[in-house]
Design goal:
By secondary structure, this protein is an alpha+beta fold. The chain has two domains: about 5-80, Glutaredoxin; about 95-200, Up-down Bundle (Glutathione S-transferase Yfyf (Class Pi), Chain A, domain 2). The protein is built from eight helices and six strands. A four-stranded mixed sheet has the order 2-1-5-6, covered by helices on one side. A two-stranded antiparallel ribbon has the order 3-4. Strand 5 (about 60) and strand 6 (about 65-70) form a beta hairpin. Helix 1 (about 15-25) packs antiparallel against helix 6, helix 1 crosses helix 8 and helix 4 (about 95-120) packs antiparallel against helix 5. The longest helix is centred in the middle third of the chain and has 25 residues, at about 95-120. The chain binds glutathione. Glutathione (GSH) binds next to loops.
């Protein structure tokens, strides 16, 4: 048992949303940057593969010693632990069920489409297959983008009103990743406006500064 949680991260990677949640909820934490060799094998900290055998980030070691992986699950767990309804509504409510659907959709469909568009070599062995995976990933992202834009069509700052929820924060991380695809999502009006609100959040600013990377602003700003 220690007093603080430890988040193992790479700048701007899937550890970013958990980092924002840690900042937003005020959970005492330390950041541990994972260093990888030329084959993407983690070399620092030396025991990282014991914590997370996949070698990927994020990994959160909670203050009670529990080791948690999977970005969306960590975000949800931090939101729950905060007891803040704005981050995740109470168990048993329809608002909660909607958050679960959104978060799952974001991690198993949008996140994977971004990976297909950007890292097709993970999904096909030969160049022809990779080109096809990337093209299909980019095409799917256009449809997914329009679906997510519809979430903000009522003009509310965030999905459930004035305060960001865990689903807003996870989506904000993914929107940044779309800079690596054919059509960054901030070019869509509703998502561009949301993304500006996201990166103006103090918790996002602090996490971004600590990880030392830039959030590319929407076009025209
Ligand atoms: N399903 C995992 C995926 C984790 C993952 O792929 N993390 C990426 C960064 S976003 C990573 O560690 N990449 C390094 C690598 O693949 O070597 C999650 O969502 O947490």
């Amino acid at each position: 048992m220690t007093d603080s949680a430890r988040l193992f991260f790479l700048p701007g990677a899937g550890s970013f949303a958990p980092h924002v949640l840690l900042e937003e909820t005020g959970v005492p934490h330390e950041l541990v940057r994972v260093v990888r060799d030329e084959h993407s094998v983690p070399v620092e900290p030396a025991d990282y593969l014991h914590l997370n055998p996949s070698g990927r980030v994020p990994t959160l070691v909670w203050a009670d010693g529990m080791v948690q992986t999977e970005s969306a699950a960590i975000c949800l767990a931090l939101a729950e632990a905060s007891g803040r309804d704005s981050l995740v509504p109470a168990i048993g409510t329809s608002a909660r069920r909607e958050v679960l659907s959104r978060l799952t959709f974001l991690t198993n469909t949008v996140q994977i489409a971004i990976l297909r568009a950007r890292y097709p070599q993970r999904f096909a062995d030969d160049e022809t297959g990779q080109a096809s995976v990337a093209a299909r990933g980019n095409r799917d992202l256009m449809e997914l983008r329009d679906g997510c834009a519809g979430w903000y069509a009522d003009g509310a700052p965030f999905l459930r009103g004035e305060e960001p929820g865990v689903d807003d924060l996870f989506l904000g991380m993914l929107i940044r990743w779309t800079r690596l695809t054919d059509a960054p999502w901030w070019d869509e009006a509703a998502l561009g406006a949301f993304y500006e609100r996201f990166h103006a959040l103090p918790a996002v600013q602090r996490a971004r500064e600590q990880e030392a990377f830039e959030i590319r602003p929407p076009a025209g700003t």
